[in-house]
Backbone:
């Protein structure tokens, strides 16, 4: 999901930086205010852990591998604002030292993986966990579902950023100047890979590590920060239902043409023969053949765009609401702020 | 993959420059690379990068291996379908069914070149600048000291944790005969990850106590002093003139 420099136009990069700055600003402020002297070492170590996590390739059924981001895990253990900072720092180091992502695209990558991912993941986790015990299996389910939708939402954002490039930035003769694939190719390609591969990996890793943490270090899991009163929790449940519907609907809505990219279907589509080189490619870049199909998918793009906007908006607004509700009836407490005087 | 700081102290031209000037001019060049829409501008930038890396004693083979092996090849593979699906004037007709369009070829080469240039600029910057100096420069550009401190410490502990997990893998492999099933591997990975997480948490506690024992009170001070010299002004002037020429070339 790391977008390197060169895939996005400078204009898009500026917009994505602008979108990320308010989150960074309030993350720095909140982390500074809410946590203590421990902030720096704790965030540094958990950031380093997230980096290591991205290097663990988990074997998947079917012979492939995938890796997790761990943004939701960090947001569960440290809180969403600290997670924004932690994952941003990791992405910065990856961009600088490992060529993973770029400097201009840093804003976009952070928006997807350090902002959308932990916020969506954390929100869903909060809703499902509500006020259950720190060691309950309901919280494991919450972590699994939250991290899955967190990474899927992030991939949707990345797909849209890549997909709008050819329509907005092309030369006079129609040559795309940046990422060459339009929304109807880029979004399904990103979504499919994350719905089927990276999402399950992220969910499994988050769930397994979370379950292990429950048994070995239950103090790390903040159970006392309640997700709101039982009477008001239905709002959050409603939002979760909406979220859960919105994400996969983007795929379902377009029918079979999007979900099935097999070589067989292509033959049915009247392509006749499949060049061997492309046949090999089809395994990992399945969306490649999309443009041979129907070009008029404008309404679908509109649907996906509105789904994303709605998803992010709902997630953010309701998360703020939940926070407000929980602040009203419980004192602030976290695992790293107990009995620590601020200097 | 693991970064050495050896080259940061080699007697080259870029190594002698102040990190602030270097950072800002390199970002400027990356922006210009982003704005460039023709291949020849991107080729000029690439020539400039190669000249600079030669003058900075960066071994060409090492440099090319670091940048060519990874992202540009990956990008090239990603760009291949664009050859065929970009609508436009036919350039090459393969067997009458699959057509490479002029626009498709152009966009694929453009994408690969741009990724190559941007990545080389980033790698060149990081190869010739010590990390601590870069952090001082970032602080000078008003990145919050909290973030600078976290960046510095995260970088350090990445290597420690990588080393730790590597040892875990090695320890397991050295006690293993035969192979594991996927399920066993997943279980072991979950344990390894959770152990690493617990270790991180424990370590952060120890690091915190060590910091407090040395007088840490929640504020971060950065000691390195930076100074701009004549060669820095020369470099910045050169970079700005080059940038203006390139921008003029872009708008031509």
Residues:
């Amino acid at each position: 999901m790391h977008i390197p420099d060169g895939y996005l136009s400078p204009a898009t990069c500026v917009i994505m930086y602008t979108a990320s700055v308010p989150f960074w600003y309030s993350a720095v402020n909140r982390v500074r205010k809410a946590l203590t002297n421990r902030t720096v070492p704790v965030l540094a170590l958990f950031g380093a852990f997230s980096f290591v996590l991205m290097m663990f390739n988990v074997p998947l059924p079917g012979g492939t591998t995938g890796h997790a981001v761990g943004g939701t895990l960090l947001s569960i253990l440290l809180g969403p604002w600290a997670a924004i900072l932690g994952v941003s720092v990791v992405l910065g180091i990856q961009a600088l030292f490992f060529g993973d992502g770029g400097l201009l695209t840093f804003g976009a990558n952070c928006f997807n993986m350090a902002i959308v991912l932990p916020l969506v993941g954390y929100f869903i986790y909060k809703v499902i966990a509500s006020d259950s015990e720190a060691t309950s299996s309901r919280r494991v389910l919450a972590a699994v579902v939250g991290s899955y939708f967190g990474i899927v939402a992030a991939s949707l954002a990345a797909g849209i950023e890549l997909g709008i490039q050819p329509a907005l930035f092309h030369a006079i003769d129609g040559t795309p100047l940046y990422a060459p694939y339009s929304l109807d190719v880029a979004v399904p390609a990103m979504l499919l890979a994350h719905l089927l591969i990276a999402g399950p990996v992220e969910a499994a890793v988050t769930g397994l590590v979370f379950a292990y943490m429950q048994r070995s270090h239950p103090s790390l899991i903040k159970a006392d920060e309640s997700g709101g009163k039982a009477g008001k929790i239905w709002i959050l449940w409603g939002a979760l239902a909406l979220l859960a519907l919105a994400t996969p609907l983007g795929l379902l809505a377009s029918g079979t043409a999007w979900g099935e990219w097999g070589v067989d279907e292509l033959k049915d589509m009247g392509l006749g023969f499949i060049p061997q080189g492309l046949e090999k490619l089809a395994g990992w870049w399945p969306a490649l053949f999309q443009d041979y199909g129907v070009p008029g998918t404008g309404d679908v793009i509109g649907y996906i765009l509105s789904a994303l906007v709605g998803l992010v908006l709902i997630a953010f607004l309701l998360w703020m609401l939940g926070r407000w509700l929980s602040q009203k009836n419980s004192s602030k407490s976290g695992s790293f702020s107990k009995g620590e005087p601020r200097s | 993959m693991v970064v050495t700081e050896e080259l940061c102290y080699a007697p080259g031209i870029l190594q002698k420059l102040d990190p602030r000037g270097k950072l800002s001019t390199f970002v400027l060049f990356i922006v210009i690379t982003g704005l460039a829409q023709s291949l020849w501008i991107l080729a000029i930038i690439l020539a400039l990068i190669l000249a600079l890396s030669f003058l900075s004693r960066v071994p060409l083979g090492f440099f090319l291996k670091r940048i060519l092996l990874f992202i540009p090849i990956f990008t090239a593979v990603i760009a291949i379908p664009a050859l065929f699906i970009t609508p436009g004037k036919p350039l090459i007709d393969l067997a009458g069914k699959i057509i490479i369009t002029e626009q498709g070829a152009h966009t694929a080469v453009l994408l690969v070149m741009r990724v190559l240039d941007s990545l080389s600029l980033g790698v060149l910057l990081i190869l010739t600048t010590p990390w601590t100096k870069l952090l001082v420069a970032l602080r000078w550009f008003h990145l919050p000291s909290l973030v600078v401190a976290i960046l510095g410490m995260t970088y350090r502990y990445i290597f420690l944790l990588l080393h730790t997990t590597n040892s875990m893998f090695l320890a397991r492999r050295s006690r293993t005969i035969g192979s594991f099933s996927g399920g066993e591997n997943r279980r072991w990975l979950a344990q390894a990850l959770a152990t690493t997480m617990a270790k991180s948490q424990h370590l952060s506690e120890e690091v915190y106590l060590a910091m407090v024992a040395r007088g840490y009170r929640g504020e971060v001070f950065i000691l390195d002093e930076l100074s701009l010299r004549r060669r820095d002004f020369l470099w910045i002037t050169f970079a700005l003139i080059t940038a203006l020429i390139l921008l003029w070339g872009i708008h031509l």
In short: Chain B has nine helices and two strands. Residues 6-129+226-251 of chain B form one domain.
